[in-house]
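Forgive a beginner's question, but might I ask you for the amino acids of a protein and the tokens describing how it folds?
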Amino acid sequence: MFQKNVALKTFNTFGIDAYASEFFAFQTTDELVKALKEGKNSELLILGGGSNLLLTQNFEGLVLKNELKGIKLIKETSDHFWVEVQAGENWHQFVLAAIANGWAGVENLSLIPGTVGAAPMQNIGAYGVEVEQVFDHLTAVE
């Protein structure tokens, strides 16, 4: 299931040539849960877009690369949109999808690097808008 000694150079925006002793890219929450169980004794690093990460050495643990994808309109009223976005989606690509679909509110947050999953944790913001102003809730995996 896990790959061994994987180069992380293409998974971080600094292009640092570090290695993970174990690596797994998950595309479903079931895969994530299984990987967490199998790697329960390993030090963990959940990796999104790698844009807020400076690797200074090899990672002697399990890197879980988030590749959860999907953008779906859940509910719409006259003045609000509820959109379900998977954590592995690129943030800027989500903003472009929101603009294309007329889902106003996140357009000031374009070109911010990273993934949707990191956005609420970092409360990303730009030009007077922060994620907390447009964010409703998340579903977490333990």
Q: What stands out?
A: The CA atoms of residues 92 and 112 lie 6 Å apart. The chain has a mean pLDDT of 95. The chain has two domains: 3-66, 71-133. The domain at 71-133 is CATH 3.30.465.10 (Uridine Diphospho-n-acetylenolpyruvylglucosamine Reductase; domain 3).
